[in-house]
Amino acid sequence: MIRLNKYLSICGVTSRRGADGLITSGRVAVNGSTVEQLGTIIDEENDTVEVDGVPVSPVEKQVYVVLNKPPGVMTTLSDPFQRKTVTHYLADLDARVYPVGRLDYDTEGVLLLTNDGDLAFRLAHPRYRVEKIYEARVKGKFTEESVQAIGRGITLADGATGKATVNILSYQKGVSKVRLVLTEGRKREVKQLCAAVGHPVVKLVRKKFAGISAKGLQPGKWRHLTEKEVGVLRDLVGL
Is the pTM for the entire model greater than 0.70? Predict the structure, then answer.
């Protein structure tokens, strides 16, 4: 017998702390029934555990990959509306891995996936201030005033303050291209920041996550991280 959050950690889904969040948000089921009660005890030998409808099992080997996510793809392992998910591109990977954070359906670029739950949780948590670099095409001519406003910070939909370092890269035919560096990465943060200063996002690409890029990878392609890259990530979040 084992606590459900510990079991999810052993399965590489997330850390125990992260597992508590999955449980309370109703994303975990045991034997087909949704569980939202923290402290739930399961029989790891006989019970079936699912996260977002996908069965999970203990990790035998830790795996770390980077995917160049195309637009029009869900950053989940399954989708009730049968939309394409990132698992479509990982069919030849002989391990189940989980996205580190999320990219919106229409956002493309660097997506890390792993079954190392502790690392994934820390990389995605705002407290660890992991750097994420985006390039966005936005409507209108981006101004220095907008750059400064985003740099000072803007209140997001959840009440948190979002901010980023912004560089204007180009302007052509009513569309500006800007580079944003964030260290918290809250939900839809880039889109919220740009919209708040009057420049809705037309296209969004994540170029780097914690220093990892998708250089050399065509959309939909992935590669394993090197031992050196994994070591850098773990050092970055104090593991």
Answer: yes
Indicate if the alpha-carbon torsion angle 193, 183, 120, 233 is positive or negative.
positive
Whether 104 is catalytic: yes
Instruction: Spell out the domains of the chain, with CATH numbers in brackets.
Output: 2-55 (3.10.290.10), 64-126+211-236 (3.30.70.580), 131-209 (3.30.70.1560)
Angle between helices 117-124 and 227-236 (to 10 degrees): 60
- Annotated catalytic residue, options 47, 52, 79, 104: 104
- What does the pLDDT profile of the chain (239 residues) look like in tens digits? 899 998 998 888 887 888 898 999 899 999 999 998 888 999 988 999 999 888 988 888 899 999 999 999 999 877 778 889 999 999 889 888 989 988 999 999 999 999 998 899 899 888 899 999 999 999 999 999 999 999 999 999 888 899 999 999 999 999 999 999 999 878 899 999 999 999 999 999 999 999 999 999 999 999 999 999 999 999 999 98
Dist CA 23 CA 15 (whole Å): 12
